[in-house]
Amino acid sequence: MKSISKDLLGLLTTIFVLFGPDIVDLGAYSIPSVSTDSKILAVLSATIIVAGWKFWARHSIYLPLLLVIGTSLALSVRYGPGQPIHFFGFIETFLLGILVYFAHSVSNWISHISEELEKMLLNDIHKPIAKLPDSFDDINTYLYQSRRSGYPLSVIVLDIKENCNKISLSHYQRILLRELSERYLKRYLKTRLINQIVAGFRRSDMIVMSTEHDSKLLIMCPSTTLEACNALAQRIQTTAKEDLDLPVSAGAASFPTDGFTLEALINAAEMSLVDGKPSVPVEETEEQAA
């Protein structure tokens, strides 16, 4: 993928050529370089495409090309019917097409950077993330209902393994900007993960952030048995690995088997953290042991 600096340089160079000398001297002939109408059309086209990047980034480049070139040809027919058509008249249209190409490329880059920053800042996340200290009331409510009514309650702890795949991390670091710190990288990875697996969560499930600077996520699963919780954790690991190439460790614990308090459940889930790798079948393990 080309660098945004190349697209910006191409856009500025095309504008400079369009607004260059007013007269091109060709020895015995002197012809106007670019008409005033084309210059005005070039400025309006570049401004509208770059400023309206949200709209133009969703459409193919052929749409602005068709509009600008069609307008240019219509202006030349409307205001210059008596002028002969020569080869250099097509250069005007060609330069306008190049201008539209680079302006559309810049708008795509702006759209791409905006989407990545929104993911990093957790602005477009489909499942809300609450900080752990702010969720104690809801967590205590779940624990109280489980104690009084005997409903199952399970938790999942997800740990994004940042150091397990240096190639994957370097890819994310290039997508983000160089000056972004490790803290924002973790938030970005968590957002990518949650947006990818959000379809597997029910409305009653709650996602909370373990700590402000930690890479771990805690998922509360009311009315969920440990077996169902483990199945959900495995599905999350598979999705993260196949769709994001992101290694994630997952551990699960249930109330009251693994603990009676939130801290005990989290500790039990962290002790059972398992890397996102396919497990060895029980039959095969027994044969090897035999």
From TrEMBL:
Task: Name the InterPro entries on file.
Answer: Rev_trsase/Diguanyl_cyclase (IPR043128)
Instruction: Tell me which domain of life the UniProt entry assigns to the organism this sequence originates from.
Output: Bacteria
Entry keyword annotation includes Transmembrane helix: yes
Q: Which Gene3D superfamilies match?
A: 3.30.70.270
Q: Which UniProt keywords apply?
A: Membrane, Transmembrane, Transmembrane helix
Residue ranges crossing the lipid bilayer per the database entry: 61-79, 85-103
Output this protein's name: GGDEF domain-containing protein
Q: Please name the taxonomic classification of the source.
A: Bacteria, Pseudomonadati, Pseudomonadota, Gammaproteobacteria, Methylococcales
